[in-house]
């Protein structure tokens, strides 16, 4: 009953009834409270009546509460049903939207679809109708070719496309058949070639036996391949550039004139590349002539040529070398004036021609100089490039030989010639002159080259002298300062009192910082190309520091010795700036007499021994003047201490008397 009643009741009426009932209960409870507080004899009856009224009001509230809960339950059920229906509708909507999106994607795929036939380059429609056989027009043919009626292809693009694709398929099948037939023909030709090569190879041993039986050069003492080698060299010489051809002819003449195998000049490189290089050069010249004759084609050819030049690598274009080069082999044998220990030193020179720079470069190596490399501080002296830069003064190959070569090199900025020497070689000026190229020189007194033999002779002498110098430096590193056996009558046979105890390499920067070396640096007597060493000698309380500068063309140019003497006891250091005695010693060492004998190759050792004896003389004179007891060790070689206004020392040894005297 209450369930049905809750459906028909008004919620707002129930709310007002609830509020009035609560107010009545409050009033009734107030009345009961007042009655209990008063002394009215009728109060109990009235209180009982009020309790009954209050109980009925409470029962009425409970009924309203039940009805409210039933209505709430019914509203929740109704809301749940509505929510479920709403979720169902929403899910159906989401499904429909997903189906719409999926269909839209499929539609886009269909719209964006590109068939493979669209990538084919089909013949044009006009060409298609021209090439189509006449028997297929106006009819339907089913087979390898499938065409619709001719009139339908004119009105339907789809049918026309199908017909063109079928025509393309037929044409490709025909071409595939031709390709297979061509491959078969190639295989047959290759098999035929292999059979013929096998026959020719079988003939090779027989021909070799015939040649061995008929070779008459062997009986005459001529190598079998000598004529073949000469023939090959003659063929290669035809493709040499003019500078290398001039140089090769001179070297070849010198080789035949020598006749001892000390010099061998051969042309090496790829003959096919050289032949194509010559043909390309000729073609370019012809194109240049035709450009001058045909003015109308001049602009187009120039543009093509400029475009090809821009595509090339700039560095490879500027540094382009000719495919052929000259291999020069030198056997440096010692002559009667040189020690026998220098025999067997070999030098290999590779001479190239830079096409676009119009210059000759040289790469070199010391083939058999490993046995001489026994010095720690002089291992770089046996580098072949260091030797080649000493053939003529101020010709180190660090600058371009002509202004044209320099202008070409400037295109590779910031590259310099020193950075490129390892790649292209060194452009020595003497190499340019031997090849007949003009060289611009700023030197007033430039050395003249009479022939190739002059350069070859100087090169051999420099190699042998450099090897001997390295041997001397190796002994000096071990502090072995011995009197040369071939020194003639220049020095006493016994050893001096002054001993060498240190020998090391010194840089040009350290040398130029010395106060007493300023005159040598400014005058150019000592340059950055010189090899500088520091020698330390000692005798009793005296310490001698000697800077030795060795030029690249040693022993043609005598080493320069710069002295500084220090006393272990407190005292002033003696140099050429403040001591006339030091200047006398340096003059005697650097300008003293050297006999024209084998001692010239031992010039460095001879100068250092003479330095030690000069120090002995100086110490002997000083100790004699001061009365020191050490003077007795040296005074027997010095009869007179000093002479002249400048107090000149007796530094020249007289082998007849066995004493040190004066040069004048």
UniProtKB/TrEMBL annotation:
Q: Does the keyword Iron apply?
A: no
Please give the InterPro entries that the UniProt record associates with this protein.
THO_Thoc5 (IPR019163)
> Record's Pfam families?
FmiP_Thoc5 (PF09766)
Which residues does UniProt call coiled coil?
Answer: 172-199
State the residue spans of region: Disordered: 278-314
- Tell me the keywords, alphabetical order: Coiled coil, Nucleus
GO terms assigned for molecular function:
mRNA binding
Biological processes annotated in GO: mRNA export from nucleus
Task: Say if the entry is tagged with keyword Nucleus.
Answer: yes
Cellular localisation: Nucleus
Got a GO cellular component term for this one?
A: THO complex part of transcription export complex
Family recorded in the similarity comment: Belongs to the THOC5 family.
* Annotated protein name in UniProt: THOC5
Q: Which organism is it from?
A: Bugula neritina (Brown bryozoan)
